């Protein structure tokens, strides 16, 4: 399955979700590797999940201010959300993804200045819009021309493709489905979004 843009699915914590993402053409799978995260995946479970998968990259998601011990994980990327963590993970050979909360900035120029400071240190940025209902698509499109940016937004079937048409980001971030019980997930929302950006053969 080929998709019209690069996709990272965040919060994957079990094999069922991982296999689904791999089968749907998702490029990157975000796995919580921070022990403080409620869905933390330990190194043993990480190895078990990745041992069943191929063709998908593992992103270690760090949610706290302290950088955990990642020696037990074979990661393709490390994702951080704290500016101060850049120094602590910079010595790693693993490429860095920097998740930036847009709400921290009063205007686009402030956001642009922040991205300019770190763009040479990261593989790409994730602009996290949190609960925002709308954003200045023209302004973000200009940022996407200057920097490698994935968008984390409240995507739905009505706004996803129009945003891709207007903003043209490097990729998007979608949220993994929650496991209802062991081995069973409701993939309806994620499936609808991925199918809406599927390229026809």
Structure notes:
By secondary structure, the chain is of the alpha/beta class. The chain has a single domain (6-196), classed as TIM Barrel. It is built from 7 helices and 10 strands. It has helices spanning 15-23, 43-51, 85-89, 108-118, 137-146, 160-167, 188-196; strands spanning 6-10, 28-32, 57-61, 77-80, 96-101, 124-128, 149-152, 171-175, 179-181, 184-185. The chain has an 8-stranded parallel β-barrel with strand order 1-2-3-4-5-6-7-8. Strand 4, helix 3 and strand 5 (96-101) form a beta-alpha-beta unit. 29% of the residues are buried. Mean pLDDT is 91; it is low at 180-185. This is Phosphoribosylanthranilate isomerase.
List the main descriptive attributes of the protein structure presented here:
single chain, 7 helices, alpha/beta, eight-stranded parallel barrel, TIM Barrel, 30% helix
What is the typical, i.e. mean, pLDDT? 91
| CATH top level assignment | Alpha Beta
User: Which fold name is given in CATH as the topology?
Assistant: TIM Barrel
Share of residues in helices? 25-40%
Please identify the structural class as seen in this structure.
Answer: alpha/beta
Order of helices and strands, N to C? Answer: EHEHEEHEHEHEHEEEH
Largest sheet: 8 strands, parallel, barrel
Termini separation comes to 9 Å
Number of domains: 1
* DSSP helical segment count: 7
CATH superfamily: Aldolase class I
| Number of distinct beta strands | 10
Task: Note poorly predicted spans.
Answer: 180-185
Strand percentage lies at 15-25%
Rg measurement, Å: 16 Å
Please give the CATH architecture. Alpha-Beta Barrel
Protein name: Phosphoribosylanthranilate isomerase
InterPro entries: Aldolase_TIM, RibuloseP-bd_barrel
Organism: Rapidithrix thailandica
